[in-house]
Write a structure and sequence with these properties.
The complex is a heterodimer. Chain A is α+β, with helices and mostly antiparallel strands. Chain A has helices spanning 23-30, 86-94, 103-116, 122-129, 139-154, and strands at 2-8, 11-17, 49-52, 55-58, 71-73. Chain A contains 5 helices and 5 strands, in the order E-E-H-E-E-E-H-H-H-H. Chain A is globular. Chain B has 19 helices and 28 strands. Chain B starts with 7 loop residues before the first helix and ends with a strand. At the A-B interface, helix 1, helix 2, helix 3, helix 4 and helix 5 of A face helix 7 and helix 18 of B.
């Protein structure tokens, strides 16, 4: 047990919990930020992806104690002032989901990708996104959404998620 | 009225075994029943209810208000027991209602899969929503519109046939009087009972249905606002965990829960063989779970190695024969076979595979005054309600199941194990309890798509005409077992067998296995008589709808017009099931040294009557193709002695971004035909087309699904 101070979506959260507990469990079960999903608990599916600073991170493989001093962004923090981020808007425009359970993780992985590579190649898209599973099989639309977001950014949009 | 939901799939493939049977004590039992009159549940077992007997006991309501409500503000609420699992029926059903009711799409809210609020429904499976719930809701919407016109006519003392309904208003074009629907009903119930079949708006005249509207409430899915079943939080909610046996058919030798019981804030629940732990947070619940020391006796059981021998030699004792043409005689078949120039006999296999929905089973249960409410992810909310009622020996009226749009199912969430566990723990805790299965639990303790052994014997003439056909399916199921090709006296037979693993429904179910066997076999026959595989099919096919998708896919793929590069091969396959028609062309590349298989290109044509939402249909078809890649190439449950050996995504490979080829979907819109369901049959064409393409590329014929272990050729 320890006392921790977390920076999540620009807000400070103080909580008392075991330092070994996963960030995923803290987000979902202690803070009720349920936008971040459990898919496997083993870092194999990407459903629990959050941003630590600007890096896509599997929250199920991240301990609470390793989060101090970082800025955590969950899907709840991507929308700003009731405006969707460019990536969120692109997913919506392309209809890049079916059941939508993988969508938060996909959006955060895609946000990290576009942060590192504003105009990603097909290979870069696969290498950043291959750890995220969409069991409904909407991968082609997700790729289209990423390309759309990249184009929108090039046309002068800024992604306030970062 | 549609009423043909008691289909084969459920009867053949519903789960019979329960995971838990609670003893409950008598005091609890009386308390749960709320005192007073005890309603006997009698001997009606869950099996009898699940075997389809349920449908006739549940007359669907004929009064409009059970299905459609119009508020004073003219907002429309539609009630259906069907559930949204990603197939986009929340959107497509609302489009159909908006069309017939003549209201804006945005004015409709769909209430789905809530057993207290929606009419009884057997479940969301078998591609039944569009062909049965579609007409059901359209009937109610047309009737409601007629009632609104009648009511306005009375008020204006006008002839109803002179009034028009549009945009949620009834208008008299002569006097220019106009009333919003809400001004007519004042939020009162629409009390009329439907009789007969009111006329539907022709698909050719659709304005809202037939258009590519985006997913209803789509914004909530990109913001994380949508609450899936595993996201439900209730005041004072606890987290529950249930230890699992070391293997299937295991019996407990001893279970030491003393260490867990000593942990602060942990409650251990024991009821007969059932053990569970409850804590106020997930971390503590997990610690308590791992503190339980249980010894299990697990009997020796078969593995993948013995699977197909087992299936062939263990017929189900109360065998029901299904599908095919039971009256064809072997003599007629023998005579037909004697006229063949080429005879072929082959067998094909499919392994057990897992649905692996990204959201595993999850439930939150809450008891209040003897009444149980459960939020859970299921394709059968009313079935789960009955499971809960049976587990706790209470009337079904004391149970409410609510199904928030869930993280998919693919046929894998028909059962209510997790709901039962959460409810048992919540009863002990006296507080709401959430149970979310781990990925390993979902891989192990759910159920699988049936494995199958398929034998086909056939004969053809040199000119490419099919003359004899015999198709036997052991265990995987009768779906789409009948051949669509012209052949006299075919024999097709499904042989139900005892399954070594718990098996159940799956997207397309046996249609995938039967299409794999038949369409690979047709390719083999085509090569045997030296006829192009597409030409061979068309020569033996008169079904115009199936011909149209074959021709549509082939034309776009430029079948027969280009030669594959070295190491590449083209394959084609197709078929029909559940009212959908599909044909798939693929190009594969096989590395000559490593034998690594890569899909390069897929073109799939699809037709299922009038298209209700082309965007949703395209998405479903694309998804079915991608999901099919897994079963075709690498998905297989590995098991031995009652244990699943690959119950993790690291070992059970599902399709990922890197597996996806260029995919083109061609939709054929037949506005002259009723709309069929489209969530399933799009999955059947890919695997045989891939096998046929691998043969074209390498000369190696693969007859076992999955065809490549780790995307390398198995043989």
């Amino acid at each position: 047990m320890g006392d921790f101070l977390l920076d999540i979506n620009g807000a400070e959260f103080r909580l008392r919990a075991p330092g070994e507990e996963s960030l995923l469990s803290v987000l979902r079960d202690r803070l009720h930020l349920t936008g971040t999903k459990y898919g496997c608990g083993e870092g194999q599916c990407g459903a629990c992806t959050v941003l630590m600073d600007t890096v896509a991170t599997r929250s199920c493989q991240t301990t609470l104690k390793s989060c101090t001093g970082t800025r955590i962004t969950t899907i709840e923090g991507v929308e700003k002032n009731a405006a969707l981020s460019i990536v969120q808007q692109a997913f919506l425009d392309e209809g890049a989901f079916q059941c939508g359970y993988c969508t938060p993780g996909m959006i955060l992985s895609a946000t990290a990708l576009l942060h590192d590579h504003a105009h990603p190649t097909d290979q870069q898209i696969v290498s950043y996104m291959d750890g995220n599973i969409c069991r409904c099989g909407t991968y082609p639309r997700i790729v289209a959404a990423i390309k759309r977001a990249s184009q929108l950014t090039a046309m002068g949009g800024t992604d306030h998620a970062r | 009225m549609p009423g043909d939901e008691s289909n084969l799939e459920l009867a053949q493939h519903e789960i019979r075994e329960r995971l838990h049977w609670f003893q409950l004590d008598r005091r609890d039992f009386l308390k749960l029943c709320g005192g007073g009159l005890l309603v006997g549940l009698g001997g009606a077992s869950a099996t009898a209810q699940e075997a389809g007997g349920g449908f006739r006991e549940h007359e669907l309501p004929k009064d409009v208000n059970a299905w459609v409500h119009i508020g004073e503000d003219s907002k429309v609420t539609v009630f259906t027991g069907k559930v949204e699992v990603g197939q986009n029926i929340r959107t497509s059903l609302a489009q159909l209602v908006a069309e017939e009711l003549r209201v804006p799409f945005d004015s409709i809210t769909m209430v789905m899969g809530d057993t207290d609020l929606t009419p009884w429904d057997m479940g969301t499976f078998g591609s039944r929503t569009t062909p049965t719930m579609g007409p059901q809701l359209r009937t109610m919407a047309v009737t409601a519109r007629q009632m609104l016109i009648e009511a306005a006519a009375q008020r204006w003392n006008a002839d109803p046939s002179t009034l028009t309904a549009a945009e949620g208003r009834v208008t008299n074009p002569i006097t220019s009087h106009s009333l919003a629907y809400g001004e007519i009903t004042h939020g009162q119930k629409l009390t009329q009972t439907v009789s007969g079949d009111p006329p539907f708006t022709l698909a050719s005249a659709w304005k809202i249905a037939g258009t590519a509207l985006p997913k209803a409430e789509g914004r909530d899915f990109v913001t994380g606002k949508h609450q899936f079943p595993s996201d439900i939080v209730r005041p004072g909610m606890m987290i529950g965990k249930v230890p699992r046996p070391a293997g299937f058919n295991g019996t407990v030798v001893s279970a030491d829960t003393s260490a867990a019981e000593k942990m602060a804030g942990v409650q251990v629940v024991r009821d007969g063989n059932f053990v569970g732990v409850i804590a106020s947070d997930a971390w503590t619940a997990e610690q308590a779970l791992s503190a339980i020391q249980a010894k299990w006796n697990v009997p020796p059981q078969i593995s993948n190695k013995e699977l197909f021998e087992y299936l062939k030699n263990n017929p189900e004792t109360d065998s029901r024969e299904g599908g095919g043409s039971p009256h064809a005689t072997p003599l007629a078949l023998q005579a037909a076979m004697a006229t063949a120039d080429v005879k072929l006999e082959q067998h094909y296999t499919v392994q057990y595979i897992a649905h692996a929905p990204l959201e595993p089973r999850a439930a939150v249960a809450e008891w209040a005054g003897g009444r149980l409410t459960v939020w859970t992810g299921t394709q059968r909310p009313f079935g789960v309600r009955d499971e809960l009622a049976a587990a706790f020996r209470i009337p079904a009226t004391q149970v409410r199941v609510i199904m928030p749009d869930m993280g998919s199912g693919y046929g894998g969430k028909h059962t209510g194990e997790c709901a039962v566990e959460a409810a048992r723990l919540a009863k002990a805790a006296g507080k709401p309890v959430k149970v979310v299965w781990t990925r390993e639990e979902e891989f192990t303790w759910a159920y699988f798509r049936p494995a199958g052994w398929i034998e086909i014997r056939s004969g053809a003439k040199r000119d490419g005409s099919l003359v004899a056909w015999e198709h036997h399916n052991y265990n995987s199921g009768p779906a789409a077992i009948g051949t669509p090709y012209n052949v006299v006296n075919p024999v097709t037979k499904f042989h139900p067998t005892e399954s070594p693993l718990r098996q159940g429904s799956y997207r397309g179910l046996a249609a995938t296995a039967n299409h794999f066997a038949r369409e690979v076999h047709m390719d083999e026959l085509a090569h045997s008589v030296g006829v192009d595989p597409l030409e061979f099919r068309l020569k033996n096919l008169t079904d115009q709808r199936l011909r149209a998708v074959f021709q549509g896919a082939a034309e776009r793929f430029r079948w027969g017009q280009s030669k594959p590069s070295p190491g590449h091969g083209f394959g084609i396959a197709g078929g029909t099931d559940k009212g959908g028609y599909t044909a798939t062309c693929v190009e594969v590349e096989v590395d000559p040294a490593s034998k690594k298989v890569r899909l390069r290109r897929v073109v799939q044509a699809w037709e299922s009557g009038a298209i209700v939402n082309p965007d949703g249909l395209r998405n479903q078809t694309m998804g079915a193709i991608v999901q099919a890649i897994g079963g075709a190439l690498f998905e297989a449950i590995q098991f031995r002695d009652g244990r699943i050996l690959n119950a993790h995504f690291a070992e059970y490979r599902v399709p990922r971004f890197s597996d996806v080829p260029e995919i083109e979907v061609i939709l054929i819109d037949r506005k002259d035909l009723p709309s069929a369901g489209a969530g399933e049959t799009g999955i059947v064409g890919l695997a045989p087309a891939v096998s046929n393409a691998i043969f074209a590329a390498t000369g190696t014929r693969l007859r076992d699904m999955p065809m490549a272990a780790g995307a390398d050729l198995a043989s």
